[in-house]
């Protein structure tokens, strides 16, 4: 089931191999233009697409930043498009935490 409204579902056969995400720190948070946060390895996004202006990211978020994400506690991107702010989590990524 696809539960990420800001990105197209990706078929398992075309999802990015782990090596394509190897340059991303495991703790990084990737922020889509819609305000949805993703983690490296998310099957909804292709690492080659993660670039401004659509995406911003935080390579070293503070401890607990993923859990605090909410409209009342947004996470602002520190790299890429720094105008991006995450206010919700991708449900698929959240299930891995």
Main beta-sheet annotation: 5 strands, mixed
Strand order of the largest sheet: 5-3-1-2-7
Question: What share of residues is helical?
Answer: under 10%
> How would you classify the helix and strand content by structural class?
mainly beta
Residue windows where pLDDT falls under 50 for at least 5 positions: 8-16
Strand coverage percent:
15-25%
Instruction: Say how many strands there are.
Output: 7
Q: Helix count, per DSSP?
A: 2
Mean pLDDT: 87
N- and C-termini, Cα separation: 18 Å
Helix and strand element order: EEEHEEEEH
Question: Radius of gyration, rounded?
Answer: 12 Å
Form type: globular
Q: Can you offer a commentary on this structure?
A:
There is one protein chain. By secondary structure, this protein is mainly beta. The protein is built from two helices and seven strands. It has a five-stranded mixed sheet with strand order 5-3-1-2-7. The protein has a two-stranded antiparallel ribbon with strand order 4-6. A hairpin with a 4-residue loop joins strand 1 (29-31) and strand 2. The longest helix is centred in the C-terminal third of the chain and has 5 residues, at 91-95. The radius of gyration is 12 Å and the shape is globular. The two termini are 18 Å apart.
Task: Kindly summarize this structure in a few lines.
The protein has helices at 65-68, 91-95; strands spanning 29-31, 36-38, 56-58, 75-76, 79-80, 85-86, 88-89. It has 97 residues and is mainly beta. Strand 1 and strand 2 (36-38) form a beta hairpin.
